[in-house]
Write a structure and sequence with these properties.
Number of strands: 13
Helix content: 40-55%
Radius of gyration: 37 Å
Structural class: alpha+beta
Distance between the termini: 114 Å
Number of helices: 14
Largest sheet: 5 strands, antiparallel
Length: 472
């Protein structure tokens, strides 16, 4: 597109955006015209100084200016200041949805990508769906008639050189002046090379000295050449991207897309792969599951080494699943989704919730060992004496994370889900642990005593059976 025309579009788009976004919400506004694209970028003020989030504002701009510029394809994208974290955790940055249409045939890829884009447009939670297939660049293909060229005593190189000289130009020499050199390029005047029809006016001299038009030895066809061909592992791929409506989880949008494309007939050799942020999320979730399992194993190994027994660490580990009792209601109440940040919070929670149980179990063992108390008395005394330290530890952690859970400041909403998960899980775990761990400790001790008594009875019975024949 001509840069002057692009600049006119840019001014029109800029005025429309400024009419939608209140001036007091904007820190600064920049515009750019490049490669036929027009971009208007808004930098918003800190979240505490404005009344609307970047994603809600993007939805508003998208709804107001969509289709307002004839012939223009408008895309609106929002991102927070901490774009690096959002890119890693799959919550923003570039287009959230990316579909890879893999297949060799470019014509079929074009048709399929258009159908996929059309179907994605029917999903309410998906916006700005588009394919990266661009309209081909106009090309004029020149095909040599090698038989005629040979009959005239010419070569394909000579014909190509004649066309290049007349249209593109050839270097004929150098003009030197005062030590400077200027290349001399020979070609037709601009008026004689304005269209593809001018190719027919190019003449070439045969080996016999005759002048013939180039049109006698070439055939011309008009077409459009592919601008770019993307590949993954050597396979051609077409990228289809889209944005999400504010507040919609990526996993939910991907499931809606899969449902919409479920009955799409795919030709042989074609496949659809969900890539981009969703692919990164799936990889990260697998890594986090492994991290959770490793954390549980390492915590048990450390406690087994410290307690010098295997039963006490198992009692302490009962406090880990209890944290879910607080995590789920907290996420539902605050509208927090299961994302990478909340999963990180769960991993942190595993290491934090066992602290209270460790303090309680260790003190119960201490009371039994040093004061020779019974199991029940040691549990009651330990619960009374350790109540305040446990509550102090919990309150310091919860209060420290409380401001973060509100999502204040630039990018604060990113870490908010992590803080909410830890706060909810730790609070519920602490309250339940004070009741659950003593019960589990007493029950485990009773089971241990019961097993010991059974073993003793079996040993006594076995001794009697062996001794009986000797007495007879």
């Amino acid at each position: 597109m001509n840069i002057a025309v692009s600049n006119q579009y840019m001014q029109e788009l800029k005025s429309k955006v400024q009419a939608i976004v209140p001036e007091e919400e904007i820190e600064y506004l920049t515009t750019e015209v490049r490669n036929g694209r027009v971009e208007v970028e808004l930098s918003l003020k800190e979240s505490s100084e404005r009344s609307i989030s970047a994603y809600d504002l993007a939805d508003k701009i998208r709804a107001d200016i969509e289709g307002s510029i004839p012939g223009g394809e408008i895309r609106v994208r929002a991102q927070t200041g901490l774009w690096i974290l959002r890119r890693i955790f799959g919550s923003g940055g570039d287009e959230a949805v990316q579909i890879q249409l893999r297949g060799y045939d470019l014509d079929q890829s074009t048709e399929l990508s258009e159908e996929i884009v059309r179907r994605m447009g029917n999903i309410p939670t998906v916006r700005d769906a588009r394919s990266d297939i661009q309209e081909g660049r106009p090309e004029q293909n020149v095909v040599f008639d090698r038989k005629k060229i040979a009959e005239l005593g010419l070569t394909g190189r000579e014909v190509a050189q004649a066309i290049q000289t007349n249209i593109g130009g050839s270097r004929a020499g150098v003009f030197r002046e005062r030590g400077n050199e200027f290349p001399i390029t020979v070609r037709l005047q601009e008026s004689d090379r304005m269209s593809t029809l001018d190719l027919d006016n190019i003449s070439i001299r045969t080996s016999e000295g005759e002048i013939v038009p180039v049109s006698t030895v070439i055939d011309q066809t008009s077409s459009r050449g592919t601008v770019t061909i993307n590949r993954i592992n050597g396979q051609r791929v077409t990228y289809i991207t889209a944005n999400l409506v504010s507040g919609v989880p990526l996993s939910e949008a991907v499931e809606a897309i899969r449902s919409e494309l479920s009955d799409l007939a795919m030709p042989t050799g074609f496949s659809v792969v969900h890539g981009g942020e969703y692919e990164e999320q799936q990889k990260a979730q697998s890594d986090f599951i492994i991290s959770i399992l490793m954390a549980l194993v390492l915590i048990y190994m450390v406690m087994a080494a410290q307690f010098e027994r295997f039963m006490d660490p198992l009692i302490v580990m009962f406090s880990v699943p209890v944290a879910i009792v607080g995590v789920v209601p907290t996420m539902l109440f605050t509208g927090t989704t299961i994302n990478m940040q909340s999963i990180m919070g769960i991993i942190m929670l595993i290491g934090i919730v066992v602290n209270n149980a460790i303090v309680l179990v260790d003190y119960i063992n201490l009371m039994r060992r040093d004061k020779n108390l019974s199991v029940y008395e040691a549990v009651v005394q330990s619960g009374k004496l350790r109540l305040r330290p446990i509550l102090m530890t919990t309150l310091t952690t919860v209060l420290g994370l409380l401001p973060l859970s509100f999502g204040w400041g630039a990018g604060g909403e990113i870490q908010a889900s992590l803080a909410r998960v830890v706060i909810g899980g730790l609070t519920a775990s602490t309250l339940i642990t004070l009741l659950l761990i003593p019960i589990v400790y007493i029950s485990a001790n009773e089971i241990k005593v019961y097993i010991s008594e059974k073993k003793a009875q079996l040993n006594v019975t076995g001794t009697d059976e062996v001794a009986a024949p000797v007495q007879s």
